[in-house]
Amino acid sequence: MRIRQPIVSVLGHVDHGKTTFLDRVRGTTVADREAGKITQHIGATEIPIEVIREACSDLGCEVEFTIPGLLFIDTPGHHSFVTLRSRGGALADLAVLIVDITEGFMPQSLESLDILKREETPFIIGANKLDKVPAWDSKDKPFIRNLQEQSDTAKERMSDALYDMIGELYDRGFSADRYDKVQNFTKNIGIVPMSAKTGEGVEDLLMSLIGLAQRFLEKELEVEEEEGEGTILEVKEEKGFGTTFDTIVYAGALHKNDQVVIGTKDKPLRTRVRHLLKPKPLDEIKDPKEKFDEIDDIGAAAGIKVVTPEVEGVLAGAPIKAIGNRESEEVVAEVEEESKPSIELSDEGLMIKADAIGSLEGLASELEDEEYSFRRATVGDISKNDIAEAATIKEPLERVILGFNVDILPEAKEELKEEDVKLFMNDVIYRLVEEYEEWREKRKEELEEERRKEIVHPGKFKILEDHVFNMSKPAIVGVRVLAGRIEPDQRVLKKDGRVVGRIKSIRTEDKSLDEAKQGEEVAIAVSNITVGRQIEEREELYIDIPEGDARRLRSLDITYDEKRVLEEVREIKKEDEPFWGM
Predict the structure, then answer these.
(1) Which of 20, 85, 290, 484 could form a disulfide with 459 if both were Cys (CB 3.0 to 4.6 A apart)?
(2) Would you say residue 508 lies in a domain?
(3) Separation CA 245–CA 308 (nearest Å)
(4) Are residues 313 and 408 in the same domain?
């Protein structure tokens, strides 16, 4: 029995400084190389206890450390915290929620709070960008020491920003205070004012995390020397080793030459561990500054690069489990179940693609919040078959494919030219969703306009007094559109139920129009009527609506005035046909 280091997930809204915080700790510049400076894959960084002990000594504290360090997972927001699971639970033991102190809680911050509350995960808030607080002089030292050197104005402005955060946390069911004022971390959330840019407060946050872990998680962090289990973060090529798997080992121990089962796109893969490659301490597993160390075994919790002889179809986000003394069929069944994306599918809906199980589930989670359903959700590049299947979707607004961090295969590009399918691709989840929603709204309006042209819509107009320009053959009169719209070739309905004439044309000054909308005054030419016989000045008239169109209009999004006119037409028609339009 031994104590493993806790796995710490770093969460927060876009651009609030998650990766910059870890960069400050490990002295790297990973943030500058990420897509849009936003972390889109999960990175793992091991912070040895010696680093934290030194930070703690700067704060003048004396703590007996039993935990060997911290293993940070840097996430693309809150999604990976939800989707990276270990035996059905959240992979992380602790969390740091990074919040811009000048902006407060933004949408992804609030979503992260909801997730942390639901998962009952202990967490600390890093109130980042303290250097942007007006009058605050931020320095690379512990917050609690730098606080003493600030002006009264700076202290007041910092406190005001913290009180706003504390108030919003209270509204969401959390009791919180500045970390140095918290007596009981089981009942109160600690907020650490900090600046990842200058380094201020980073020591305070690390010390708070260790204290939280040692005080409340030691029992949960006890591990047996059992078969290793982990989650694959990323599948990538490594010079000299070929295809490798960046992996978080969260239970037991993994050894060189272990027989393992790994999740794939299809059936689980049985293979063996050929090499175990470990990044140097304070280095980042997916973007190392130095060469890896080759080791014989690794115990939880750790970030490790695994090399196996077989690699076909292995998925990022899938489990890897050593067989050891267990029945291999039992392990295969477990891995197969855990490799399935937890996304509910339906007969209709969107098609989504992503580069990993976690990012696929993250994309689905973002879309599910907007109440979209999914016809298919798969990992991998966009293929010709994907395009062909999307083309069969009946709903035009769902005849799309959303691809996160994937490519489109050459034959799929050719297929896309032939099919009425819209493709969206991006390497930032929220931007991908925004692009689709912007297109959806625009396309919805276009489809509505197309439907309007197919269906006769309600229209009511009044013949203006002293605006008869021609009595007949055709009658030309000035009218005001009272509600809805009128168009050429529509028949004219009187209040007594008679259909008289047909609109031949609509003009304003010397311009011919395709339609006239509510509030507009135009001249119309009407065939087969004579002013003074079939129609009169100041008379209110309607567009005659076919009964089938009237029924279809009930399911369309028409305006209140159009609904009112439709009901008036229905009342006129009911004189002869009691159930007209029903």
Answers:
(1) 484
(2) yes
(3) 9
(4) no
- Considering the domain architecture, whether residues 75 and 102 belong to the same structural domain is answered as yes
Catalytic-residue membership of 467: no
Number of domains, the chain = 4
CA distance 393 to 347: 9
- Whether residue 449 is found in the same domain as residue 537: no
Buried b (16+ CB within 10 A) or exposed e, 371-405: ebebbbbbbbebbbebbeebeebeeebbbbbbbbb
Structure confidence at residue 287 (pLDDT) = 61
The tens digit of pLDDT for each residue in 301-348 reads 888 899 999 998 887 778 999 999 999 999 999 999 888 887 899 988
Please tell me whether residues 97 and 43 are part of one structural domain: yes
Domain end marker among 171, 197, 223 = 223
- Are both 268 and 298 inside the same structural domain? yes
144-195 pLDDT tens trace = 999 999 999 999 999 999 999 999 999 999 999 999 999 888 889 999 999 9
Residue 90 forms part of a structural domain: yes
Query: Which residue has 């999960």 as its token pair?
Result: 42
* Residues 175 and 324 placed together within one structural domain of the fold: no
Which listed residue (41, 78, 255, 275) is catalytic? 78
Residue 242 structural domain: 229-338
**Residue 64 buriedness (CB in 10 A; 0-12 / 13-18 / 19+):** exposed
Of residues 119 and 344, more confidently modeled: 344
Residue 127 to residues 8, 29, 161, 164: CA-CA distances in angstroms? 17, 21, 9, 12
Angle made by CA atoms 6, 319, 283, in degrees to the nearest 5: 45
- Quote the distance between the C-alpha of residue 117 and its chain's center: 19
**Interior angle at CA 526, CA 521 and CA 527, nearest 5:** 175
Percentage helix, strand, coil for the chain under 3-state DSSP, each rounded to 5: 30, 30, 35
Handedness of CA 31, 37, 41, 42 (dihedral sign): positive
SS3 294: strand
